[in-house]
Write a structure and sequence with these properties.
Elements lengths: L2 H17 L3 H57 L16 H10 L6 E5 L2 E10 H15 L1 E10 L5 E10 L4
Antiparallel strand pairs: 1-2, 2-4, 3-4
């Protein structure tokens, strides 16, 4: 049996069923079908949209706070001296151990630390952004390190980032 003949037979059966009903029964059936369609529209379209809007409205204040924090930190980073004017000999010798100790004091754990001459490369997965910023300020003052390259990716948890940072030690002129 083909799909077309099945559809035709179903249509004829529905027409016969409808014709056998009196006007009052037809109105009751139409009202029932309208209620079912309205319930389906609400459950499949309206309710999920309302839940999504409510979820986004709940998370919006936290996102605004994160944006404000990032803007404040960006403004603070812009105001930092560039290092050329304040270049002085390093107060603390640059070594992997001293860098890791300084990171540990800020609660940071580098997955990979590489020191090659005056270049330092760090990988910091799951690090606190505020602690990283404080450590960079400390490293600038203690080791005369300046950031030459940084890749920082925000994580879903507030203040947590994955960071890859390359730093260069400034030498006295």
């Amino acid at each position: 049996m083909s799909l077309k003949t099945s559809m035709t037979e179903a249509s004829q059966a529905a027409s016969r069923f409808w014709a056998e009903r009196n006007l009052r029964e037809q109105r009751i059936l139409l009202a029932g079908m309208a209620a079912i369609v309205a319930a389906l529209v609400y459950l499949l379209l309206v309710s999920p949209a309302q839940e999504g809007i409510a979820r986004y409205q709940r998370s919006l204040p936290e996102m605004r706070q994160q944006v404000a924090q990032l803007q404040a930190l960006t403004q603070e980073a812009v105001m930092l001296p560039q290092g050329d004017a304040a270049a002085a000999p390093a107060a603390v010798p640059l070594s992997r151990e001293t860098l890791e100790a300084a990171l540990q004091r800020r609660g940071l754990k580098a997955e990979n630390t590489s020191v090659a001459g005056e270049i330092v490369r760090l990988q910091l997965p799951g690090a606190s952004f505020s602690a990283l910023n404080e450590w960079l300020n400390e490293a600038r003052a203690a080791f005369q390190l300046t950031v030459t390259e940084a890749s920082i990716t925000a994580q879903p948890t507030p203040d947590i980032v994955n960071a890859n940072v390359t730093l260069r030690q400034q030498k006295a002129q």
